[in-house]
Each structure stands twice: as structure tokens, then as C-alpha cells.
Amino acid sequence: MSFRILTSKAEDTFKHASLTIIAYSITLGFVIALVVNRFLVYRRLRHFKGPWLASFSKLWMMKCTLAGTMHLEVADVCAQYGKAYSNASESLLCYAMQYLIVNL
Hints:
Elements: H1 9-44, H2 59-67, H3 70-81, E1 84-88, E2 91-94
């Protein structure tokens, strides 16, 4: 003889709604953390100009690399923005020694 716990349809609906709310909350938390992170990275390097897409992601570098035109794009960007520019969300590309600071 087996025993079965009977639950009402309302309890099942409540459990499903609770799990849905938890899943949405976790997803929203990750999205907010991603947006805040991207903003902080952008804020740190905002005074260095560069391609718009490169200001918050590495998609610009990926696009140039996969297309095989990175050397041409870098030459164009150097002519447009100068010898130091933001080439990805967390990096700079420098072609002049005066922009480099060495901590020894």
C-alpha cells in the first residue's frame, strides 16, 4: 500500500509562481550587475576616445579580427583619434611613448 500526498491546484500554482519570481529576480540581478559593470568600465576610460562599439565591449576588435582588416582599422582609428585610443572595453592601444607611464 502506498500513500500519496494530495496537494491542491492552488498550492501547485503558488509553487510555480514562486519559482518563476525567483528565476526572474536572479535574471534581473545579473542584468543589473552587467549594466553597472559596463558603466564603471566605460567611466574609467571615457576620456580616451575611440570607436563607439569599443567603448563598452570587445565586439569591435572581434569584428575587425574576423574580417582580417584589423591593421587597416587601427590605422584609420589612429588617424582619427590620435596615438592613444580605447580599442576595447577595458584596454587602450598606445602608439606614442608619451602616453605610457612606467612604474618601476
